[in-house]
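Q: For a teaching handout, I want to show students what a protein-ligand complex looks like in token form. Below are the inputs, and the small molecule is magnesium ion. Please produce the holo structure.
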Amino acid sequence: MSEPEERVRSLLDAGELAAIARRLGREIKRDYPDGVVLVALLKGSICFLADLVRELPGPCELDFLSLSSYGDGRTRVRVVKDLDLEVTGRDVIVVLDIVDTGLTLAYVLRLIALRGARSTAACALLDRQSRRLLPVEVRYVGQVISDEHVVGYGLDLDERYRNLRGLEVADEADLRADPAAMFERLSQR
Ligand code: IMP
Ligand code: MG
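A: Here is the structure, written as tokens, with magnesium ion included.
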């Protein structure tokens, strides 16, 4: 088996992440000239949202939604923090860190549609298409990725590693073995 050092790699550095936010910001600006409500999913989307929203100088409102999954295989989802804004009649973009099985996004899109939004779309920093359980459309995609765990730039493993500047790919066992040492190593890259 290879050493942990060889099983970690940088997926996107700060410059590449900024370029993704700029590109997606341009696409959203083009599609929503009259403004949009961004609904960010806590907590993984916070860094991405912060970069994306500053690429949208036009009218734009922000809200946050926090969900928690539970049950067998964690396939059931419930609301932990609901929206504050009224989205009836509004154009809404859901902002996510990553779409994996699609269960979370499907739930959120349905919730927002039930509240009477005029339109809904999704914007995800990462799209792991290979693990989809539900078919969901992600209109704005930062990057498609394969089946490895990603941390940093808001994304966690057991609430750790969100504060890394870049996005790193690593083996889950390695990330759990000695988190302090692993954080140190990843943060110096
Ligand atoms: P889904 O409902 O399976 O699409 O899961 C989406 C959520 O799982 C994301 O919003 C993340 O919070 C979490 N998630 C999935 N894969 C990763 C990963 O590689 N790193 C960190 N979080 C992840
Ligand atoms: Mg998480």
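A: Two things your students might notice: The mean pLDDT is 94. Residues 14-31 form the longest helix (18 residues).
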